[in-house]
């Protein structure tokens, strides 16, 4: 017992402000087209393993929801026109949260106390590991009045990770049904947000979360770092503004 | 890498495989089918065994002619480790292992129509597959007062999906059966027809927390097949990255085990230490799960002198912190009471099921691919392989605890070697020889991940088979659980650290 107390004293408080853990130099965040003249060669489009890049003449756009942040497009653009920024605050609102009135209502009812049910519908486990890290003392999710619960019946928000597999379709639909309204759905990571990580024509995969249930928040990343998840949660609750 | 192949007729497969198994030290390593109708007019059933040479494998290949009958004698009655592989072959190819003691679906669930086999070459991945509602038989125990407890696929915590069926007499578990492969993402089919470069991001995403190990096994299979030798610098950066992966996994798993019994101080400290390691990973590779570093031919990024010093300093801080966390467990009688003699896997069961990694080493199976089938730079490095014999939750825990200082040693040695290595990071990988097959392996935090690759005549993937560490380890859980009480199940389960994403693919 004494040793336990000593350890607690020695470690002290390790909890950080939600976005204090800055992205290191090598972190691969949002891909941004830098200025300059594009040769319209299509190298970036061909390089992208998930079809996240669309080129219209010399204008390149990146679908953040699908991007797995591999950096191949940046590496393979011969003119060096793409850069990978350290930006990870990429969460986007959708569904019910697009309406101002509903958003305000959700902020009012759930803003101070949100219960989350996690649902793995076909993830590689890295997104799930990051959700677990939110409970570590470094992030201490509970300090925001937010916590994970054991049953969908107690949940306000479903955090969905992974591409929806054929074998988990029923679990997703039943869990969604079991969650009382008003309910929110967050698609966590490229898999749930786009469903493209394992190819477009795949007998075992149905697509992203929104192929089956309405999604209210998309959090890009592969996986999204814990700060990106917190950004998504706080944004959905109206506790912070869009970065 | 040397693969010695014996080709036999399907009807002789059992005898040939059994002869190999009795001569090999570790029994059957993997078993899968391949649609080779285009070249030989047959399907092939491959059985992989350990070879005599450290880098060698022995393969028995049974030919099943396409015109039928599509069957072969099941190996399971003589080699229990074959049970799941054969069920998977029946699901994915429709080739029947005759006399299999419990031939029921494994990968494809009740929603999948009978008679469709997705890994056959004539199965078009773009086709619509109608919904089915077949029965999915599960195993039970019978007797007066015996009842069943179904759990999952969705669990109470943040964990991966699996469905467990406990047959109970009161608190005591009599039998455990499971329905798995919920996160089956069809990865082996999805990479077919792609070049290795195109396939690689999916390989890295088979599993998030064994990402490096899968990247390594795939790369080594391809490098062996194409005769590519990787630069010295890449060799040490690979060891460094692979050991960083083991480190954060072991530390997280050690802390997490305490969650199964509500020992919160250990859980929190484990999570805090793991967080510091994940941040180190992000600084070194740009990704907290170390993605983007290992690539076929070498590595994608250098580990600069500055990063080397950062890693060295992080290890200095880590060691005493970790030691005091372990101290809290070692001296806590309530904790020890729960883990000692709980969930035992006897040596013979571990050996017969082909269990790997810490789970095997905790039951006295002294086997580690890094030492016994060395790859990359491991043959040149100095490290010990801790082994325990009690086969219980405690043994699996202490094996991990004892491996941590060895991993720290390996990282330090890799950093040292890096200092003297030239600047080159990756070698070009030439196209693979047409219809060549190769294997690659690496020892992840959960045990050996074995990959097998066959390339077509256009440098595209024809067949890719991934035998993850959790594949042979899962059945060991059904040995460990019976006789224990249900409240100990989470503890037993966690002590294996089975990974469903790896298993399900
Ligand atoms: S970073 Fe990778 S996934 Fe994202 S757009 Fe570029 S190539 Fe595509
Ligand atoms: S988004 Fe990336 S990290 Fe998350 S489940 Fe998919 S592959 Fe894994």
Q: Can you describe this structure?
A:
The complex is a heterodimer of chains A (243) and B (505). Chain A has 243 residues and is an alpha/beta fold. In chain A, 28% of the residues lie in helices and 18% in strands. Chain A has helices spanning 2-11, 43-47, 72-76, 100-110, 126-134, 169-178, 189-194, 226-236, and strands at residues 31-33, 53-56, 59-62, 82-84, 92-93, 114-120, 146-148, 157-161, 164-165, 184-188, 205-207, 217-219. Chain A is globular and about 65 Å long. The termini of chain A are far apart. Chain B has 505 residues and is an alpha+beta fold. Helix content of chain B is 40%, strand content 18%. Chain B has helices at 13-23, 37-40, 83-93, 187-190, 196-203, 211-226, 232-257, 264-285, 305-330, 333-339, 347-353, 357-361, 369-372, 393-420, 470-480, 489-496, 500-504; strands at residues 2-9, 28-36, 42-50, 56-65, 71-73, 96-98, 146-151, 163-169, 172-179, 294-295, 298-299, 437-444, 447-455, 461-467. In chain B, α7 (232-257) runs antiparallel to α8 (264-285), α7 (232-257) runs antiparallel to α14 and α9 packs antiparallel against α14 (393-420). In chain B, 56% of the residues are buried. The chains are: A alpha/beta (243), B alpha+beta (505). Chains A and B meet through α1, β6, α5 and α6 of A and α4, α5, α8, α9 and α17 of B. One iron/sulfur cluster is lined by residues 31, 47-48, 50, 52-53, 62, 67-73 of chain A.
Oligomer: heterodimer
Spatial gap, N to C terminus of chain B: 25 Å
- Give the rounded overall mean pLDDT of chain B: 91
Say how many strands of chain A there are. 12
* Molecular shape of chain B: globular
Approximately how much beta-strand content do the residues of chain A carry? 15-25%
Strand order in the largest sheet of chain A: 5-12-10-8-6-7
Class per helix and strand makeup of chain B? alpha+beta
Tell me the strand order in the biggest sheet of chain B. 1-4-3-2
Number of strands of chain B: 14
Helix segment tally of chain B: 17
Distance between the first and last residues' Cα of chain A: 46 Å
Report low-confidence residues of chain A grouped into runs of 5 or more. none
Percent helix range of chain A: 25-40%
So how many helices of chain A?
Answer: 8
Global mean pLDDT of chain A: 90
**Share of β-strand residues of chain B:** 15-25%
Q: What sequence of helices (H) and strands (E) makes up the elements of chain A?
A: HEHEEHEEHEHEEEHEHEEH
């Amino acid at each position: 017992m004494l040793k336990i107390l000593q350890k607690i004293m020695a470690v002290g408080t390790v909890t950080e402000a939600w976005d204090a853990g800055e992205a290191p130099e090598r972190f691969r965040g949002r891909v941004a087209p830098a200025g300059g003249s594009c040769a319209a060669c299509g190298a970036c489009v061909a390089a992208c393993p998930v079809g996240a890049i669309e080129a219209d003449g010399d204008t390149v756009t990146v679908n953040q929801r699908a991007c797995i942040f591999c950096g191949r497009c940046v590496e393979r653009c011969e003119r060096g026109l793409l850069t990978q920024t350290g930006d990870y605050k990429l969460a986007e609102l959708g569904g019910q949260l697009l309406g101002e009135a509903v958003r305000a209502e959700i902020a009012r009812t759930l803003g101070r106390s949100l219960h989350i049910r996690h649902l793995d519908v076909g993830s590689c486990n890295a997104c799930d590991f990051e959700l677990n890290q939110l409970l570590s003392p470094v992030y201490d999710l509970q300090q925001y009045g937010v916590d994970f619960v054991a049953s969908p019946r107690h949940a306000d928000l479903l955090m969905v990770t992974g591409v929806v597999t054929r074998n988990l379709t029923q679990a997703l639909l039943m869990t969604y049904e079991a969650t009382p309204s008003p309910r929110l759905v967050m698609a966590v990571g490229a898999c749930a947000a786009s469903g493209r990580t394992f190819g477009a024509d795949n007998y075992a995969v149905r697509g992203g979360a929104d192929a089956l249930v309405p999604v209210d928040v998309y959090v890009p990343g592969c996986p999204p770092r814990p700060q990106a998840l917190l950004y998504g949660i706080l944004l959905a609750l109206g506790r912070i503004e869009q970065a | 890498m040397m693969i010695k192949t014996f080709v036999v007729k399907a009807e002789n497969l059992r005898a040939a495989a059994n002869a190999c198994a009795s001569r090999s030290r570790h029994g059957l390593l993997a078993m899968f089918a391949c649609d080779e109708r285009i070249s030989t007019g047959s399907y092939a059933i491959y059985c992989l065994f350990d070879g005599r040479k450290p880098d060698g494998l022995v393969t028995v290949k049974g030919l099943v002619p396409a015109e039928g009958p599509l069957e072969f004698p099941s190996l399971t009655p003589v080699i229990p480790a074959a049970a799941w592989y054969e069920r998977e072959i029946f699901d994915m190819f429709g080739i029947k292992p005759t006399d299999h003691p419990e031939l029921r679906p494994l990968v494809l669930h009740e929603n999948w129509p009978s008679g469709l086999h997705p890994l056959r070459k004539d199965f078009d991945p773009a086709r619509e597959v109608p919904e089915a509602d077949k029965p999915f038989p599960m195993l039970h125990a019978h007797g007066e007062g015996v009842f069943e407890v179904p759990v999952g696929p969705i669990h109470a915590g943040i964990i991966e999906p699996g469905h467990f069926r406990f047959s109970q007499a009161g608190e005591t578990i009599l039998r455990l059966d499971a329905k798995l492969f919920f996160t089956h993402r069809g990865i082996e089919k999805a990479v077919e027809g792609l070049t290795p470069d195109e396939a690689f991001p999916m390989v890295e995403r088979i599993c998030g927390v064994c990402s490096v190990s899968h990247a390594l096994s795939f790369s080594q299979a391809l490098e062996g097949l194409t005769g590519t030798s990787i630069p010295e610098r890449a060799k040490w950066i690979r060891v460094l990255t692979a050991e960083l992966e083991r480190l954060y996994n072991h530390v997280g798993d050690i802390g997490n085990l305490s969650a199964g019994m509500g020992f919160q101080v250990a859980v929190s400290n484990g999570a805090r230490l793991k967080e510091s390691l994940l941040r180190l990973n992000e600084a070194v590779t740009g990704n907290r799960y170390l993605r983007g570093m290992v690539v076929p031919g070498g590595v994608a990024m250098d580990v600069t002198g500055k990063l080397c010093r950062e890693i060295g300093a992080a290890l200095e801080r880590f060691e005493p912190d970790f030691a005091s966390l372990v101290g809290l467990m070692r001296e806590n009688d309530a904790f020890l009471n729960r883990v000692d003699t709980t969930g035992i896997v006897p040596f013979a069961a571990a050996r017969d099921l082909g269990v790997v990694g810490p789970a095997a080493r905790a039951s006295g199976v002294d086997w580690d691919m890094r030492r016994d089938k060395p790859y990359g730079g491991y043959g040149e490095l100095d490290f010990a392989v801790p082994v325990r014999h009690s086969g219980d939750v405690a043994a699996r825990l202490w094996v991990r605890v004892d491996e941590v200082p060895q991993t720290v040693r390996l990282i330090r040695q890799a950093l040292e070697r890096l200092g003297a290595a030239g600047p080159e990071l990756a070698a070009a990988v030439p196209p693979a020889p047409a219809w060549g097959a190769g294997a690659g392996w690496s020892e992840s935090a959960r045990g050996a991940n074995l990959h097998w690759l066959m390339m077509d005549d256009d440098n595209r993937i024809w067949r890719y088979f991934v035998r993850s560490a959790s594949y042979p380890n899962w059945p060991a859980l059904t040995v460990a659980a019976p006789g224990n009480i249900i409240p100990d199940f989470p503890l037993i389960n966690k002590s294996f650290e089975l990974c469903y994403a790896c298993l399900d693919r």
